[in-house]
Amino acid sequence: MNKEYKKSNQIDEPPVPLADCIICAAGASRRMGEWKLSLPWFHPDWTGSPSVPFAVRAQPPDWPILPSHENWLVDAAVQSALSAGCRVILVTGFRGAELEERFAPWPNVCVVRNYRWETGMVSSVQAGLPYVQTPWFFVAHGDMPLISSRWYRSLFANRPLADGEDQASVLRPLYLSNKGQTKQPGHPVLFSASAIPLLQKAPEGDSLKPLLSRCQVRTIDTWDQGVIHDVDSLETYITALTLSQPSGDTPHPGAKVDPLGAMETRPAVSFLRLISGAPGSGKTTLLRREAFRSFINLIESNQVPSSLFVLISQVQIGQRTDGKAPGFDIEAFYQLPGGPISFFRQALCRPIGELRVPEPITLGPYQFDPEAFKNLEQWLNPVLEYAEPYRSIHVYIDELGKLELDQQRGLWPLVNRLVDQVVQAAAAGCSYELVCSVRKDSISQISSYLAAKGFRPVLFDLTEYSCSERSLRL
């Protein structure tokens, strides 16, 4: 068989796995705006993350370039099935070579390439079917990191003894919400091998619902949100991180507890960074991932209840055939100490002539909606007016350019207020993080502004790294 199509590592594979598990991991994450399978996930000594040779702890925040083999979101989905005793058939498509390389050292993982991945999820299930070797098998998704390994064991233990008459057997979780008034089918789904011929003939698309109507489907009721929570947006990703926190105040493994009950897993570090580079070099991706890693660190060290966290980024919406961006949205979230997480997203700019708003701001080939900046500031008022003490403050701001630094418009009024928050935190002895991405021609202006505030930022220029180096790290 062509090695490019299928790669497998069978080292130490148990002779009889619980069941095979097809995990679909082929999509391009278009709704997310970035490749969600590689989003940062928790460090391996905090949750049930994989203990494989390259799953190393992310280094302290001396600088944003981290080991390329830090924990990814897809690792959690794969590890859950492995922990239950399954053999995983991981079906890739978009950026398949990266997943094949990543999972090559993992015992009991067979990686299969789906070259028809753009036709929908059904084709990925079909690509994995020839490698199923067990009488029962699961289907799950690589973007569902909250599925517990106990679901694989529980579903397998409750499988029917035999198929129904002329019908293949299927067993899956059924999520109950609104006091049981609403029911939503969940994952993983356990199929008997007799369903394989039906699956092979299923029509292309993203749903197996038509096929399931021809099977004998049984369900197990649950209030566990993990069986329905897939990651396809900033909000669902951050929510997944917060839902994965252990309940109560029990320290996580490896945490050091002082006599007063405060937990710490790494020393507090204060820093201010500027990220720069040519258009399309990955400034936004790097800034967002640094923010995500920082938020994960706060969760792991149990500092979220005493910290202020803000991320503001500009997200490209799709890509035109000429390679140019059809526009950008502004996307953000914040969490006040001890408070709920709040999310924001609004259309920010479109090519000239395509933005239907009164008095747009024209800059280069784009027109900006001034109301987007006003609405963002109004949404952030609870942060800007917050007066209670906090242990640390973390602010990540994307894309400061001519609009801000030449015209003092756009994000500039908000930047001033957020930087003042950081100045106050530093004066009070709190740890802080301030990271901004900035156009290359505006570096000197923002550096002078920050120097007047008493900060000496460290500059990281992405143009110093080749595209291949960046793809390994972002």
Mean pLDDT: 83
Give the overall form. Answer: elongated
Total E-strand runs: 20
Assembly type of the chains comes to single chain
**Helix residue percentage:** 25-40%
Low-confidence segments, given as residue ranges, are 1-15, 47-68, 247-267, 466-474
Q: Give the end-to-end Cα distance, rounded to a whole number of Å.
A: 32 Å
The percentage of residues in β strands lies in 15-25%
Radius of gyration: 24 Å
Structural class: alpha/beta
Note the main sheet.
9 strands, mixed
Structure annotation, total helices = 14
Describe the structure.
This protein has 14 helices and 20 strands. The protein has 474 residues and is of the alpha/beta class. The longest helix has 18 residues, at 283-300. β10 and β11 form a beta hairpin. 26% of the residues lie in helices and 25% in strands.
Detail the topology: elements first, then pairings.
Blueprint: E1 6-9, E2 20-25, H1 73-83, E3 87-92, H2 96-103, E4 109-113, H3 121-128, E5 136-141, H4 149-157, E6 169-177, E7 182-185, E8 189-192, H5 196-200, H6 209-212, E9 216-222, H7 234-243, E10 256-257, E11 263-264, E12 271-276, H8 283-300, E13 307-316, E14 328-335, E15 341-351, E16 361-363, E17 366-368, H9 370-379, H10 381-384, E18 392-400, H11 402-405, H12 412-427, E19 431-438, H13 443-452, E20 458-461, H14 467-473
Parallel strand pairs: 2-3, 2-5, 3-4, 6-9, 12-19, 12-20, 13-18, 18-19
Antiparallel strand pairs: 1-4, 5-8, 6-7, 6-8, 10-11, 13-14, 14-15, 15-17, 16-17
